[in-house]
Design goal:
The protein has 460 residues and is of the alpha/beta class. Helices cover 33% and strands 26% of the residues. It starts with a strand and ends in a 9-residue tail after the last helix.
């Protein structure tokens, strides 16, 4: 007889959600995690701590800027980095201990240690083996490396080290203009660092709508960011000053930058070290665990979810897959709609997107229309002095069905979910336009963009 119905390896967003859902469905469940705290990268050294520092640093930026315009006189605003990091640590601890409580509440066994798949139906943790009917691989991801860049997490850091800097660097060079680099660059830039971003491509935030990319780069430049695009970094030389060496692809010329701290933010890769995939015969492709459409690997009874499989490396994508796999194991029909997975960049302004970009629709040859509305014409945005950005809705030209939405502006990460719900129900832009929105709110900009897909917005 098996010890468990399900053993989930990995206690991150995908893993812990999967374990809780399995238990809710009546399956005897255990979750194996070797970090020493539940929550994975997201809660410990990723999403949650970075958002804490983004929030704190944005308040500093407000105090130094907009407060005076609003008649708030804040004298001698200063930053205590040590105390700010302590605040961040408290936020992390509160969240991770909360998951332990949820495990106890739902009767999920928490097995501390690094898990290895000894065979189909057997997981080894240290010297002890556990039998199970199903194994779910949810081991997440780790920062990707770059040839010539040696990380020490003190002067040359990944996102992990960038969340633990003991003082504000005078010069911060960020390698990679993706979500992680721009968010953490924003944190230290607001606190006083000179931020230079070096990116291999000729635009920021790969995969975003091109109009958003251009506007976002301009707004970050207004905040003091410097960008070197189309540049291939060949290495970082350590001395009294760090020297970032790069080659501009347009003319093959070589250059170097001096820095106090270098942040390597060139993406993430699946983490499967020590998992025993080869021994069990689990197929992989480009480092990712291969699964079918219902998240099963090629080995009976072994499933995989989250960053370790194909798709966007997003905590909420992993959570959805975790719930879907739990339901599949329990004999139900697990489902994830990959066409409606939002992505958010938590800078100021925020950037959020769901569905298709204009570039994708053009490539598909699909007839579409654009409804766009600027926050410059939104009453709440004017009152809050946050008028940068816009809402852009893409709808099918014939049916008016919403195909995608791209928002750059205040509260974008929350506003995008109105569109997610609309797309999940197959709504038309007119459905959003005819729905009453409270005034004054940022969400009115979404309604106005939907109206712009028809006869036109009211307030511009």
């Amino acid at each position: 007889m098996s010890d468990y119905d399900v053993i989930v390896i990995g206690g991150g967003p995908g893993g812990y959600v999967c374990a809780i859902r399995c238990a809710q469905l009546g399956l005897k469940t255990a979750c194996v995690e070797g970090r020493g705290a539940l929550g994975g990268t997201c809660l410990n050294v990723g999403c949650i701590p970075s958002k804490a520092l983004l929030h704190a640093s944005e308040l500093v930026h407000e105090a130094e800027g907009n407060f005076k315009k609003m008649g708030i006189i804040a004298k001698d605003v200063s930053v205590d980095v040590k105390k700010m990091l302590s605040y961040k640590a408290d936020v992390v601890k509160s969240n991770t201990s909360g998951i332990e409580f949820l495990f106890k509440k739902n009767k999920v066994d928490y097995i501390q240690g690094w898990g290895e798949i000894a065979a189909a139906g057997e997981v080894k943790v240290g010297d002890k083996s556990y039998k199970t009917r199903h194994i779910v691989i949810a081991t997440g991801s780790e920062p990707a490396s770059l040839k010539g860049v040696e990380v020490d997490e003190e002067r040359v850091v990944t996102s992990t080290g960038a969340l633990e800097l003991k003082e504000v660097p005078k010069r911060l060079v960020v390698i990679g203009a993706g979500v992680i680099g721009l968010e953490l660059g924003s944190v230290w830039g607001r606190l006083g660092a000179e931020v230079t971003v070096v990116e291999f491509l000729d635009h920021v935030t790969p995969g975003q709508d091109a109009e958003v990319q251009r506007q976002f780069q301009k707004l970050l430049q207004k905040q003091g960011f410097k960008f070197i695009l189309g540049a291939a970094v060949s290495g970082v030389e350590k001395g009294d000053d760090l020297k970032v060496k790069y080659t501009l692809r347009k003319d093959d010329s070589t250059h170097e930058l001096e820095a106090d701290v270098v942040l390597l933010a060139t993406g993430r890769r699946p983490y499967t070290e020590g998992l025993g995939l080869e021994k069990v015969g689990i197929e992989t492709e480009r480092g990712m665990v291969k699964t079918n459409k219902v998240w099963q690997t090629n080995v009976q009874g072994i499933w995989a979810i989250g960053d370790v499989i194909a798709g966007p490396m997003l905590a909420h994508k992993a959570e959805d897959e975790g719930m879907a796999v739990a339901e599949s194991i329990a004999g139900q029909h697990g489902h994830v709609n990959y066409d409606v997975i939002p992505g958010v960049i938590y800078t100021a302004p925020e950037v959020a997107a769901v569905g298709k970009t204009e570039e994708q629709l053009k490539e598909e040859g699909r007839a579409y229309k654009v409804g766009k509305f600027s926050f410059m014409a939104n009453g709440r945005a004017k009152a809050n002095l946050v008028t940068d950005g816009f809402v852009k809705i893409l709808a099918d030209k014939q049916t008016d069905r919403v195909l995608g939405c791209h928002i750059i502006g205040p509260g974008a990460g929350d506003l995008i979910h109105e569109i997610c719900v609309a797309m999940e129900f197959g709504a038309a832009a007119e459905d959003i336009a005819r729905t009453c929105h409270a005034h004054p709110t940022f969400s009115e900009a979404v309604r106005e963009a939907a109206l712009a897909c028809g006869d036109g917005p009211i307030h511009s």
